[in-house]
Design a protein that fits this description.
four-stranded antiparallel sheet; 20% strand; eight-stranded mixed sheet; 16 strands; Aminopeptidase; alpha/beta; single chain; Alpha-Beta Plaits; 2 domains; 13 helices
Length: 470
C-alpha cells in the first residue's frame, strides 16, 4: 500500500494521462482562451470523482478540483496555455511548424497541468483506499504566460486556506529548486497623434511613432539608474501603416523584472513618467494598460528537501530505445558544445551523461541566487509555502519557449517524464498527509521568516483579464 499504491494507480492510468497531455499539445490555446484543455481536464477529474469548482471569479477557463475534507489542505498547481509562434512538428530535431505563426506548447504546459492531475488522482485513489484524512486540490490555472492568471485566482482567495502548495515544471532535469526568481509586470503603451501626409504636410502631423521611439530612448537611459539585477524589455507592437503617412497611432509593450515586487513597482512608475514625457514632447496622447503582475517567488527548502527524497525513491522513467534515440538526436539542433556547457552548470561529468540526460536528480540554486525568469507561481508562494520542482521531459540542453521544446513536449518521451514527476508530487503530498506532517510546520516557519514581515499584495480590484486574440 502507501506509496506503492500511488505507483500502481498511475500505471493503470498511464494511457489516459499520456493521451491527455498529447491531446492538449495538439490543441494549443492562448492564455484565457484554453477552453479545450480546461474542459478536457474538468471532465476527466469529474469522472474520477473529484468535486469541480468553476469558473473562478471572471476567469472562464480557471477551475479547482477538490477531494477529501479537513486539514491539512494541500494544493497542486496546473497550467495549460500555449505560446504564440511556436507551432512545431513533434519528435524531430529541425524546425517545421505545423501552422505558420500559430500557437505551440513551447513551455510544456500540456505536461505541467496533466502531471499535477496525475499526482492528484494517484493520491486521491490512495487516500480512498487507506482512509487518509485531509484535503487535496488541483488548480487549473490559465494564462501563466505574461497574463498572470494565478494573480486573478489569488485575488479571488482560492489559495488562502492552503497549508502548502506543490508545483513543478517540465524541463531538462529532475530537480528541486532553492533559488528565488524575479517579480514581473507587463504593460502596453498606446500613443495617439495626428495623421498627415509625410511629405506635403508633415508640420500638420503629430507622430505617435515618434512618441514610441522617444519613450524607448528614455527607457534605455533609465537602465543606468535602476538596480543591476532589474531588467527592462520592450517591443514595438504598432509602428504605423504606411511609410509616407505620419503615424496617428503607435504602441509598444514593456516588461519589467526585479528581485522584489516593490522594486518592480518603483521602476514601473518611473517608466510611466517617461511615457508621459514622450507624449508631451510629441504633442500626442498616451494611455497605458496593465497586462499582468507576477510576484517574485519565495522558494521553500523544507518542501524541496522532501521532494528530493522522493525523487531518489521514485521508479525511473521507462523510456524505450526509440525515445532515447530521439533524446540523443536533439543535440543536432544546437551548436557544438552546447550539451557540455549545459551539463557543466550542474557540476556533473559528461562521462555520466547518456542520451543527453542527467544521471540523477539535482538540487538547483540557493536562496542567495535569483534566476532570470518569472512566473505567477510567485503569487501563490507569497500566500502559502510552495514547492518549486522540475521534471525531465526533454534533453538537458533544451530551453523553454523554443521550437526545440515544442518538438520535445509533444512526444511520449515527455509524457513519460511527466508521469514520473506526477508520481514524485503525489509521494511528497502523501508524506505531508501521513508520516511527515512536521515538514508542514517547518515549511510554514521558513516561509514566515523569508517574508520578512511583508505581505502579499493582490492585483488591483478593477484589473480585468487581458484577452488577447485566440
Amino acid at each position: 500500500m502507501s506509496k506503492e499504491s500511488i505507483h500502481t494507480h498511475l500505471e493503470a492510468l498511464r494511457p489516459q494521462l499520456q493521451n491527455m497531455a498529447l491531446d492538449i499539445w495538439a490543441h494549443p490555446e492562448a492564455g484565457f482562451h484554453e477552453t479545450y484543455a480546461s474542459n478536457l481536464q474538468k471532465d476527466f477529474l469529474r469522472g474520477m470523482g473529484a468535486k469541480i469548482i468553476a469558473p473562478i471569479d471572471m476567469l472562464e477557463t480557471a477551475f479547482v478540483a477538490e477531494y477529501g475534507e479537513g486539514q491539512p489542505i494541500i494544493g497542486l498547481l496546473g497550467e495549460f496555455d500555449a505560446l504564440p509562434g511556436l507551432s512545431q512538428k513533434a519528435g524531430v530535431n529541425y524546425r517545421e511548424p505545423l501552422e505558420e505563426n500559430a500557437y505551440g506548447h513551447g513551455c510544456g504546459h500540456n505536461l505541467l497541468g496533466t502531471g499535477s492531475i496525475a499526482a492528484f488522482v494517484g493520491l486521491m485513489l490512495t487516500m480512498q483506499e487507506e482512509g487518509i484524512p485531509g484535503t487535496i486540490r488541483y488548480y487549473g490555472c490559465p494564462a501563466e504566460e505574461v497574463y498572470s492568471g494565478k494573480s486573478f485566482m489569488a485575488r479571488a482567495g482560492v489559495f488562502d486556506d492552503l497549508d502548502c502548495c506543490l508545483s513543478w515544471h517540465p524541463s531538462g532535469e529532475d530537480g528541486v529548486g532553492y533559488a528565488n526568481n524575479t517579480a514581473l509586470t507587463t504593460m502596453e503603451f498606446h500613443f495617439t497623434g495626428t495623421e498627415a501626409h509625410a511629405a506635403a504636410n508633415p508640420h500638420l502631423g503629430r507622430s505617435a511613432l515618434d512618441a514610441v521611439e522617444l519613450m524607448n530612448v528614455g527607457a534605455n537611459y533609465l537602465r543606468e539608474h535602476i538596480i543591476p539585477s532589474a531588467r527592462i524589455h520592450y517591443i514595438i507592437t504598432d509602428g504605423g501603416r504606411a511609410v509616407n503617412v505620419v503615424p496617428g497611432r503607435a504602441a509598444s509593450q514593456y516588461a519589467i523584472r526585479a528581485p522584489q515586487v516593490d522594486q518592480m513597482h518603483d521602476i514601473r512608475s518611473r517608466l510611466i513618467d517617461i511615457a508621459r514625457g514622450a507624449a508631451l514632447m510629441t504633442g500626442t496622447k498616451m494611455e497605458y494598460v496593465l497586462v499582468g503582475v507576477y510576484h517574485n517567488r519565495l522558494p521553500n527548502a523544507a518542501l524541496a528537501d522532501l521532494a528530493y527524497e522522493n525523487y531518489l525513491q521514485a521508479p525511473p522513467t521507462p523510456w524505450n530505445e526509440e525515445e532515447l534515440a530521439f533524446a540523443t538526436s536533439m543535440a543536432a539542433a544546437y551548436p557544438e558544445g552546447t550539451v557540455e556547457k549545459t551539463v557543466a552548470n550542474y557540476g556533473i561529468s559528461m562521462e555520466e551523461v547518456h542520451n543527453n540526460l542527467l544521471p540523477r536528480p539535482v538540487r538547483m540554486g540557493s536562496k542567495s541566487k535569483i534566476t532570470g525568469g518569472s512566473s505567477d507561481v510567485g503569487d501563490v508562494s507569497w500566500i502559502t509555502p510552495t514547492l518549486n520542482m522540475t521534471g525531465t521531459c526533454c534533453p538537458v540542453m533544451v530551453n523553454g519557449h523554443t521550437w526545440q521544446a515544442a518538438s520535445c513536449y509533444g512526444t511520449t518521451f515527455a509524457a513519460k517524464g511527466m508521469l514520473r514527476s506526477g508520481e514524485v508530487l503525489a509521494m511528497t503530498a502523501y508524506d505531508l498527509l501521513t508520516t511527515r506532517k512536521e515538514v508542514l510546520t517547518q515549511a510554514r516557519q521558513e516561509w514566515e521568516q523569508d517574508k520578512e514581515g511583508k505581505h502579499y499584495i493582490p492585483i488591483p480590484s478593477d484589473l480585468k483579464p487581458y484577452l488577447s486574440e485566440a
